[in-house]
Amino acid sequence: MEETKIKRKAWYDKNTIKREFSEGDLVLVLRMNRPNKLSVQWKGPGGIEKKISETNYVVSFNNNTYSNQVFHVNMLKPYYKRAEFINMINSKAKEDSNELEENFPGIGSNPNVFDFDEVTEHSQLKKPTEYSTNRETKRNTMPLF
Length: 145
Prior knowledge:
Elements: H1 2-14, E1 26-30, E2 42-51, E3 56-60, E4 69-72, E5 76-78, H2 116-122, H3 128-141
Antiparallel strand pairs: 1-2, 1-5, 2-3, 3-4
Organism: Trichonephila inaurata madagascariensis
Region (Disordered): 121-145
Protein name: Retrovirus-related Pol polyprotein from transposon 297
């Protein structure tokens, strides 16, 4: 029995990542009872109030749902804030009319518009004649299979 316990612990520990949080860290909590499978899987962010044991933490939320409940470390993951977007404004007045305009890629362009002529020109696509020879070869060798 003890030998089996050691083997199972070794198997479990092989792929686990030790997670540890400190007080004040923002975390997301795995929701166990979702109304449907398309609803949000993670709830949060919530703040770590205190560490109860090596694997249990008290998490508090601002909107008082799951207020100050104890969660296992396997149900928590760290919360990372998104970077704030900053719009660039060029307020420098143009003094010289011959001055070249700066071209920033991506600003004002639509990322969903592609130049397919350029893509096909540089790709390794087969020519239509190669497709026809492949079809003929298939037809000729079909009775063999």
